[in-house]
Amino acid sequence: MAYYPDWAAPAYPPEKIDFARFDWIDYAFAVPDAQYNLTWDGSADGGGLLARLVDAAHRAGTKVKLSVGGWTGSQYFSPAVADDASRQTFVQNILAVYEQYGLDGIDIDWEYPGQAGDAGNAVDPRDTANFLAFLQQLRAALPQGAALSAAAQTVAFADADGAPAHDVSAFAAVLDWVLIMNYDAFGSSASPGPNAPLDDACGNSTQPAQNAAAALAAWTAAGVPAAQLVLGVPSYGYVSRSDATRLRTRAPPAGAQIYATSEDGSTDAGQMQFRGLVAQGILQYAPLGENGTDGAGSAGAGNGTDSGAPPTRVEIPGGELQSLYAGWSGFERCWDACSSTPFLRSEGAEQVVTYDDPLSLGLKAAFAREQGMRGVNLFDVSGDTDQWDLTDGCRTGLGLPV
């Protein structure tokens, strides 16, 4: 599975996706407005792009869900689900778009019920209970066989007091699966941490709930079976202004090997392999947005980067790999044994890049498979290479052919 964001379309048209590698594509995002109608986020031609995506995907036998919400698209969720009348309006508006574009499912990405999330989001202590009532109404309105999923944090939906709910089993009865967004654990910082930890192997993370293993434990304890959980994984990373030699408060366990690769991908111990996948070299990054930002704010001293460049968040380009740095060979590739993720560091430039490569994504996908989870979902497909290195890393970990 993978997300396809409409804002990627100018450089990455939907027809570029190799649909044979995916069972599902989530189109991001449809955004509810103050009247609970769906608008498009990131593209003036959001509807046209969705139609093209559905057409191309269906011809290849891949299914498409429409993802509703997102970080900057959750402002009106709380009032939209607040009572029966607003819920019914919202449900009918979603159903109309579902039918118009011949979709296969709906993904609700409310960030987050019962919590503020992005600035300006409406919040109500009854959000989680109202969200369940809304999902039950949406499920009843959708045709039989339509998939219904929700994207969520590494902890269960907030209860009335704002704490993670102890029992969300009622959500498991109405949702086909919950996507756990196991990324952005740490952003750009002078003391950087891993973006998407597999676990807290050293037992010393300052955010011990934000990793794949902890998320699985939290959601299953709250009543959602592992088979109804999908692990979200990133195709992007963060650049930090930092002279750190290891990631935040995470000393490696005794005897753990920290390795570094050269620019050509060689290591002191030789090439590493993961279930037949050769981790070949470092991943080179290009800016995600203009002016060194990711659309959520400027890259500046406050987040540990040089002002304006490099950006705090970066993606692998969809086209030819290109370096963000003039002196790329000054970076070494290191491994954080505590989170099972790589990072790049340059002592001269005082910069650290925290990211995921085919090896670390393969490890997370293997974890999902071994724990009986439904699968993994990449955010997003446009961040992969033309050779599908990240997707194939996930497929390898899932035991699928590449």
Automatic annotation (TrEMBL):
GO terms for cellular component: extracellular region. The keyword Cell membrane does not apply. PROSITE patterns: GH18_1, GH18_2. InterPro entries: Chitinase_II/V-like_cat (IPR011583), GH (IPR017853), Glyco_hydro18_cat (IPR001223), Glyco_hydro_18_chit_AS (IPR001579), Glycosyl_Hydrlase_18 (IPR050314). Residues 292-305 have a biased composition (Gly residues). One of its GO terms (molecular function) is chitin binding. SUPFAM superfamilies: (Trans)glycosidases (SSF51445). One of its GO terms (biological process) is chitin catabolic process. The keyword Nucleus does not apply. This is Glycoside hydrolase family 18 protein. It comes from Wolfiporia cocos (strain MD-104).
